[in-house]
Here is the input.
Amino acid sequence: MSNKKIAVLILCLFFLAIVGTVCADDKNSVPVYPGAKPDAETAKFLKDGLKLDGAAYLTNDSIAKVIAYYKGQKDLKVLFEDKEGAKFENSKKLSVTIQNPWRDMKTGKMRSDTLISIVNEKKR
Here is the structure.
């Protein structure tokens, strides 16, 4: 992943930290990708590091397949998309960010599974 793309993804996470929060009930209005497993470590980073009450999920499916799934959701619009990531938002200001590859903030290592983050972009 290029430095520019890493910077864009970091900027997206920073933006989410400033304006986002997720309530458990809100996450239910955006579907979780079928078969994706909760990622407790990344969710902890969202909560403790970025001050978000967000949700994070992992899948071994390709990023193209995950992006196609979210493009098929009627209330989501694409805000950003390329071969390594995408960001969607719905009418309730819930966002879905998809990344592959992505940097594990705890270990600093690049990961090759697909990360899905769901965050509420409404101002606190």
Notes: The first helix runs from residue 3 to 19. Residues 14-26 have pLDDT under 50 and may be disordered. The longest strand covers residues 76-82. Strands lie at 37-38, 55-59, 76-82, 85-90, 94-99, 102-103, 110-111, 114-120.
